[in-house]
Amino acid sequence: LAARRERAAAIAGGERPGFLPETVSIRESEWRVPEPPRDLLDRRVEITGPAERKMMINALNSGARVFMADLEDSLSPGWRNVIAAQTNLQDAARRTLSLETEGKRYALHDETATLLVRPRGWHLVEAHLTLDGAPVSASLFDFGLAFFHNAAALLARGSGPYYYLPKLESHREAALWNDVFVHAQEALGLPRGTIRATVLIETVLAAFEMDEILHALGPHAAGLNAGRWDYLFSAIKKFHAWPSFRLPDRAQLTMGVPFMRAYTELLVKTCHRRGAMAIGGMSAFVPSRKDAEVNARAFEKVREDKDRESGAGFDGTWVAHPDLVPLAKGVFDAVLGDSPNQLHRQRPDVHVSADQLLDFQVPGGAVTEAGLADNIEVTLHYLASWLSGNGAVAIHHLMEDAATAEIARSQIWHWLHTGAKLASGATVTPELYASLRDRALAKLEGLPRLAQARKLLDRLSLSDTYEEFLTVPAYEALLSESEV
């Protein structure tokens, strides 16, 4: 974490990141990660969501090949939620996960998605467990409990302890995870390489070290994922001090913009050269049961997104809702045919420079009052829900989690502190922010914890200092209240 702060300060001072000269031998030499386990050989559709009992059952039964139980961006980490998630993971590993509610019983099908777990990131702590008087790492807490309780049960039914690793900024952080994996396997008497991990490339700095990250994980490496929402958040966080840096409205930041396309195509090329899986980004649309027209428009955008990913060589993709699984599966089925993946596609046509990864220009992009208003409303709504114990919230037919809320609140701060010009010609000022915030508060009236959410949003937006992660002060607020 200290190294992160030092690097951030250097970038704020004008340093331009690049591919590391000291690791050129890793990038230029020939090596490959181990073959995927049988149940990670075909990952064409992955569904993600909280480790909440009903959601887990529906996700595991959805027809997706993989379900990522999210203990990070979809988790509001009150103690009850944290322990409930671990309990649900134990039941899922043993195939006893079920729920009876309102006269209906939910249970697992005979065939279910392969279970992966995403622990919280290195920057978070678990305040309810201390070591020598200090809170322990939330990463180690989440991983340690899930691995200790479930590794044997997963292996007994032909699967294994599989993980997603979030928000890494360098290969040294991957090497730390590798040390953790080695220690954990030795403690339980399991061979090295039993654990397999997929890393979310969701920070701009990690995009420069994809070869090195896979290499650092050694026998535990399984693949990389294009974590699009956190990647955008990372860009704002790391480069907001650059005078030329400004991203347009969140809705305009599609995967087709040049810097996002460059990073994802480099990810596919890197993965396939090393025999690792390349998994595409999230489609966060939540289908409406009432509005067929909204669904039709959204499904077309989702299809375009998945067509682009499958055409670029990705081996699979993410969705946030079971109703999107058939659509995404159909797109990848059409490209994959009888093949379980696209590891054979090496993408020799892709040549991505450091300058392309750092070219944040968005042709035709603009900052609008509607975009600012949407950011304010989404962040307020999400924070109120998070503080009430719900870390994944459907807002305007999109599944919002901490990653998407981070983009929204970061843009608010950045536009305020640089006096961004709106497309209308107006300037983003504290007065405009307050007016739009009050309008959003009136619209959201009745939400629990809304007053607390407003206080937190004001702190995040108006402070002279940019807060690195909204979940850090939000966790402090959560702990200060009665237990959630």
Would you write up a description of this structure?
The structure is a single chain. With about 475 residues, the protein is an alpha/beta fold. It contains 18 helices and 14 strands. The chain has an eight-stranded parallel sheet. The longest helix is centred in the middle third of the chain and has 21 residues, at about 290-310.
Average pLDDT across residues? Answer: 97
Spatial order of the strands forming the largest sheet: 5-2-1-12-11-10-9-8
Q: Name the shape in a single word.
A: globular
What would you call the structural class? alpha/beta
Q: Major beta sheet, specifics?
A: 8 strands, parallel
| Helix run count | 18
List how many beta strands DSSP finds.
Answer: 14
Helix content: 40-55%
Radius of gyration, taken over Cα atoms and rounded to an integer in Å: 22 Å
Q: What are the low-pLDDT stretches, counting only 5+ consecutive residues below 50?
A: none
Proportion of beta-strand residues: 5-15%
Q: What gap, in angstroms, lies between the N and C termini?
A: 28 Å
What is the topological layout?
Blueprint: H1 2-12, H2 24-28, E1 45-50, H3 53-60, E2 66-70, H4 79-93, E3 98-101, E4 104-107, E5 114-118, E6 125-131, E7 134-137, H5 138-156, E8 162-165, H6 171-188, E9 196-201, H7 204-207, H8 210-217, E10 221-226, H9 228-239, H10 258-273, E11 277-283, H11 292-312, E12 316-319, H12 325-336, H13 354-357, H14 369-387, E13 393-395, E14 398-400, H15 402-418, H16 430-443, H17 450-462, H18 471-480
